[in-house]
Amino acid sequence: MPVRGTLMGPSEFDRMLLSIHIRHIREQALALRLAIDLLRRTYQHSLKILPLFTAVLLASLTLARPASAQREVSIRFLDFESGKPIKKLGVMITGYKGDPSHGKAADSTILFSVSKKTDQDGRVVVQLTEPLPDRIHVYSFDLAQSLSGFSPAEVLKAGSVVEYRDNTPKLQISAKPGEILILNRKLTAWDKMRREIP
Description:
The chain is α/β, with parallel strands linked by helices. It is 35% helix and 25% strand. The protein has 3 helices and 8 strands; from the N terminus they run αββββββαββα.
């Protein structure tokens, strides 16, 4: 015997489709509400732990860096007679592995080279990183006396004072560890012209 189905009118069929559709929308809304609630809770939790996480990260980066990873050498230029700072002096500082002043230039490697101008105190500061260069050479075209190289290890330990033309010093000064004091004289325009005349 064939099974007979009941026929639904258009309004009953529409109601049934509408109720299925409403149930589906309610399920999606519930899932969306749960997802929003989860995101809100995660966000609130992350706001609580974010400062702690940031502090731990910064502390680990600070502690992971060796204390001697970067060192500072201060180079100060003073007039040999008056002791006043030589301001706005163009200076070239070069760090070498090996010593270019002894033997062949091929036996040394340039690790860094920077050009700076002295500040109001006649000072330039150079950041050295480990491993330290073997020699630091300081050069300025505007000084009356040329300069020799320095051992960064010795400068960091005891400092260094460079006298002008090996004269008996008129100034009683001493360098602190990490400091190079250079007593010299800035060339005038006339000095520079005389230097260029053969």
